[in-house]
């Protein structure tokens, strides 16, 4: 009877221990995903989609990109906030389409163009010292023709597009621009993530680590080891 009471007491202590560990892990994962969601809310990206993957269409995509960035540079380069950049985009969607169509016509093509502001899915992308993990981001999207070709993208706010095209993107300048709009924790998230799967994998390893630790403690408490 005494042995049963001790075993029961150890079992209860083990359950409480697991509950505390689980609560701590929940808090950890909650903070990670909160920061991941948060930094996305401080960025607007620029996305140009080619008509197809043909050599000509891909070359045209880059020409359209360069023309839009050149023409819109004075408006976007000195934007001081996300809201200001968003307002500039919304006020210039028709103008952006016009610029793109002019460049397309100049290159002896007649593709249609659609410019839109919305939330779109992006793959993992490196920008010098930082990496933006795959996921949904707010973006200015320009679709050329059927929009079935490979994409090109950059960050419109903060204005990394203009730094990249005009002056060459350096690690230090990239960090500076990003740190101007992100918190320290948010910046650490994109500074250290190096692939679309790395962050989830880290969490999976953390789950395994914590569960194994909890099991060993539980076994020790109930006297199984």
Distance between the termini: 21 Å
Main beta-sheet strand count, sense and barrel state = 4 strands, mixed
Class of secondary structure makeup: alpha+beta
Low-confidence stretches: 23-37, 165-170, 194-208
Give the strand order of the largest sheet, numbering strands 1, 2, ... along the chain.
2-5-1-6
**Helix run count:** 7
β-sheet strand percentage:
15-25%
Tell me the helix content.
Answer: 55-70%
Instruction: Report the strand count.
Output: 6
- The domain tally reads 2
Q: What's the quaternary structure here?
A: single chain
Element order: H for helix, E for strand: HEHHEEEEEHHHH
Summarize model confidence as the mean pLDDT.
73
Choose one word for the global shape: globular
Rg over alpha carbons:
25 Å
Task: Give the structure's gist in a few sentences.
The protein has 225 residues and is an alpha+beta fold. The protein is built from seven helices and six strands; from the N terminus they run H-E-H-H-E-E-E-E-E-H-H-H-H. The strands form two sheets. Strands 2-5-1-6 form a four-stranded mixed β-sheet.
What does this structure look like?
By secondary structure, the chain is α+β, with helices and mostly antiparallel strands. It has 2 domains: 2-37 and 197-222; 43-181, no CATH class. Helix content is 61%, strand content 17%. It has 7 helices and 6 strands. It has helices at 2-40, 55-76, 82-106, 160-167, 171-179, 184-192, 198-222, and strands spanning 44-49, 113-122, 125-127, 130-132, 135-144, 151-157. The strands form 2 sheets. Strands 2-5-1-6 form a 4-stranded mixed beta sheet. A two-stranded antiparallel ribbon has the order 3-4. Helix 1 (2-40) crosses helix 6 (184-192). The model is unreliable at 23-37, 165-170 and 194-208 (pLDDT under 50).
């Amino acid at each position: 009877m005494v042995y049963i009471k001790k075993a029961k007491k150890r079992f209860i202590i083990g359950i409480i221990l697991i509950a505390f560990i689980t609560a701590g892990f929940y808090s950890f994962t909650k903070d990670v995903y909160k920061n991941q969601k948060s930094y996305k809310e401080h960025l607007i990206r620029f996305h140009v989609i080619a008509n197809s993957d043909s050599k000509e269409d891909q070359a045209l995509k880059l020409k359209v990109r360069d023309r839009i960035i050149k023409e819109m540079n004075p408006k976007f380069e000195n934007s001081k906030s996300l809201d200001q950049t968003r307002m500039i985009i919304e006020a210039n969607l028709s103008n952006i389409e016009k610029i793109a169509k002019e460049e397309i016509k100049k290159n002896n093509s007649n593709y249609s163009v659609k410019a839109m502001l919305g939330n779109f899915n992006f793959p993992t992308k490196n920008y010098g010292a930082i990496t933006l993990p795959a996921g949904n981001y707010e973006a200015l999207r320009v679709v050329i023709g059927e929009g079935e070709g490979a994409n090109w993208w950059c960050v419109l706010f903060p204005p990394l597009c203009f730094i990249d095209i005009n002056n060459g993107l350096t690690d230090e300048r990239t960090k500076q621009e990003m740190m101007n709009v992100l918190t320290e924790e948010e910046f650490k998230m994109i500074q250290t993530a190096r692939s679309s799967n790395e962050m989830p994998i880290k969490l999976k390893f953390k789950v395994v680590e914590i569960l194994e630790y909890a099991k060993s403690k539980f076994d020790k408490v109930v006297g199984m080891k």
